[in-house]
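Quiz preparation item.
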C-alpha cells in the first residue's frame, strides 16, 4: 500500500500518561504537547524548520482550540507551517499516521511531524442553543463524561458494547480477569531495570505548580495494580463480566512521530542500521453496539494491504479499552499471547484518546527493534463501532 513511507529510528516520543485529575489536569494539552515536542527536538537534534507540515491529532477542546494546529506549529518554532487537525476518538493517532503516510507517498510533503495530544481531565462542558427549550433553556453537554455514558450510534454505553461482544463469543468473568492480570504483568516488564524500556522513548514533563515550584513527571501516574485476588473482589453489573479492573481509564498526555521518505529517514535516524517502514492501513466499522470487535476486521484489512498473514507478525499492540477487545482478537485471529501487548497497553496505562495509539505504535517499534526486526500490527477500536490498524516493518 505504501512504498516510500519511513520513520527515523528514535524519531518519535511519548510523554508519560497521567490518570485524569493528576499532574497534567490543569495544563492546556496543546501547550503541553508543544513543550514536550521542543524537548524531543533537543534530545534528538531536530529543528522545527526541518518540517514542511504537521498533522495534529486531538479530540478534546482546549481554550483557543480553534487555532490549535497553527498555534502548536508556532510554539514549536515554525510559524510558516500548519496542517489539519484530525479527530477520531481513540483511533486519532492511527488515522493521523495514515494521512501523513499518504502525503509522503504522494509527494505533497517531504517531512511531516505527526503530533497528538489530549487532556481528559477538566474536560470542556458545553452549552448548546435550544430555542425551543422552556424560556430558551440551553442544552448542556459534558464532552467526556456524556460520551463515556452514551454512544448515539450504538444506542447504549461503550461498556455495554463490550458486554455485547462478550456475550456473542461466550467469554467469561474468569477469562476477563485473567487477561487483565496478564496485561498488567506485561506492563511491569516495561518498568523493569528502572523503566529501561520506557526510557527508550518517554520524555519527562515539567509542570509548574506555582511561580517558584515545579515538578518533573518522569513516568506514568495513576496505574492500579492488578491481581487475581483484587479483581475477584470487584463487582459487575447483573449478567455482565466486566469489572472496573478489566477496563482502561481516561488519561492526559501526548506523543508524536516523524514521517518521511527512506532517504530523509536515514538523515534523521539515530542509527542507520535500523529501518522503520509504514506499510499499510486498515479500517472497519463493525455491527451496531459491538465496538471492541472492530479492531479485528481493521487488522485483517491492514494485513491484506501489506500482503502478510498473522503468522508473519513478530509483535501486536492494541488499544484495548476492555479485556474483551483482546479476547476477541485472540479468538478470531489466533494471535499468540507471546507477541500480544508486551510491555503494556492502554487498558493499563490509560487513554488520552488523541495520543493513545501513537504511544502504542512507538512501543511497537521499540519492541521490534529489540527483537531484531519484523512485522508489527497496531490496531484499536474507537467511538461509533469503528476500528483502525497499521502495519509497520522494522529491518
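Solution:
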Amino acid at each position: 500500500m505504501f512504498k516510500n513511507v519511513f520513520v527515523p529510528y528514535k524519531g518519535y516520543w511519548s510523554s508519560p500518561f497521567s490518570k485524569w485529575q493528576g499532574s497534567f489536569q490543569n495544563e492546556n494539552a496543546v501547550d503541553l504537547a508543544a513543550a514536550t515536542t521542543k524537548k524531543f527536538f533537543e534530545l534528538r537534534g531536530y529543528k522545527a524548520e526541518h518540517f514542511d507540515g504537521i498533522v495534529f491529532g486531538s479530540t478534546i477542546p482546549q481554550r483557543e482550540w480553534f487555532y490549535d494546529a497553527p498555534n502548536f506549529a508556532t510554539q514549536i518554532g515554525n510559524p510558516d507551517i500548519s496542517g489539519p487537525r484530525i479527530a477520531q476518538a481513540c483511533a486519532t493517532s492511527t488515522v493521523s499516521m495514515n494521512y501523513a503516510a499518504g502525503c509522503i507517498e504522494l509527494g505533497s510533503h517531504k517531512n511531516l511531524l505527526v503530533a497528538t495530544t489530549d487532556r481528559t481531565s477538566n474536560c470542556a462542558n458545553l452549552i448548546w442553543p435550544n430555542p425551543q427549550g422552556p424560556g430558551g433553556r440551553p442544552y448542556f453537554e459534558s464532552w467526556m463524561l456524556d460520551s463515556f455514558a452514551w454512544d448515539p450510534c450504538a444506542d447504549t454505553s461503550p461498556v455495554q458494547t463490550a458486554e455485547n461482544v462478550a456475550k456473542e463469543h461466550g467469554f467469561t468473568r474468569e477469562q476477563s480477569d485473567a487477561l487483565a492480570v496478564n496485561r498488567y504483568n506485561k506492563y511491569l516488564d516495561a518498568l523493569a531495570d528502572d523503566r529501561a524500556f520506557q526510557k527508550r522513548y518517554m520524555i519527562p514533563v515539567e509542570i509548574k505548580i506555582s511561580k517558584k515550584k515545579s515538578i518533573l513527571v518522569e513516568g506514568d501516574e495513576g496505574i492500579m495494580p492488578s491481581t487475581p485476588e483484587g479483581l475477584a473482589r470487584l463487582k459487575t453489573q447483573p449478567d455482565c463480566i466486566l469489572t472496573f479492573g478489566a477496563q482502561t481509564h481516561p488519561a492526559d498526555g501526548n506523543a508524536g512521530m516523524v514521517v518521511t521518505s527512506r532517504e530523509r529517514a536515514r538523515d534523521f535516524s539515530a542509527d542507520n542500521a535500523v529501518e522503520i517502514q509504514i506499510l499499510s492501513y486498515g479500517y472497519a466499522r463493525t455491527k451496531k453496539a459491538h465496538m471492541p470487535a472492530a479492531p479485528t476486521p481493521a487488522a485483517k484489512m491492514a494485513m491484506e494491504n501489506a500482503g502478510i498473514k498473522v503468522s508473519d507478525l513478530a509483535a501486536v499492540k492494541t488499544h484495548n479499552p476492555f479485556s474483551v477487545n483482546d479476547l476477541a482478537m485472540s479468538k478470531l485471529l489466533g494471535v499468540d499471547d507471546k507477541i500480544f501487548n508486551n510491555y503494556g497497553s492502554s487498558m493499563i496505562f490509560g487513554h488520552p484518546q488523541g495520543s493513545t495509539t501513537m504511544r502504542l505504535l512507538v512501543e511497537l517499534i521499540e519492541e521490534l527493534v529489540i527483537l531484531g526486526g519484523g512485522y508489527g500490527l497496531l490496531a484499536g477500536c474507537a467511538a461509533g463501532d469503528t476500528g483502525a490498524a497499521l502495519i509497520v516493518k522494522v529491518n
